[in-house]
Amino acid sequence: MNILFVCSRNIWRSPTAEAIYKNRKDLNVRSAGTEPSARIKVSAKNISWADIIFVMEKKHKQRLLQKFRHEIEDKTLVILDIEDDYQYMDNELIDMIRVSVDQYL
């Protein structure tokens, strides 16, 4: 299964999620951001590749719908409701991601 994690700048939340799941043999994971200043910017190619897309906040879903409406049409898109209050690999962030994502895997 191909999973894409999306946050704003691809610095803390989505790279943390990618790191948590990257060593699972049954998953291929990537992360990206919606902002122009993102470390890795989300693209139509990322979205087409993904089987399921996890976004950290509702605003990320809205941005994807605005920019990639056609590519996202038949995708499973899940809002995790994780605000930008955490550093990379913060223990609380890891726990929140696992609790939210594992039920879909």
UniProtKB/TrEMBL annotation:
Domain of life: Bacteria
Coiled coil start-end: none
InterPro entries for this protein: Ptyr_pPase, Ptyr_pPase_sf, UCP029416_PTP
Phosphotyrosine protein phosphatase I domain span: 1-105
Gene3D superfamilies reported in the protein's UniProt record: 3.40.50.2300
UniProt cross-references to Pfam families, sorted A to Z: LMWPc (PF01451)
Protein name: Protein-tyrosine phosphatase
Species per Swiss-Prot/TrEMBL record: Algoriphagus yeomjeoni
Taxonomic lineage from the root: Bacteria, Pseudomonadati, Bacteroidota, Cytophagia, Cytophagales
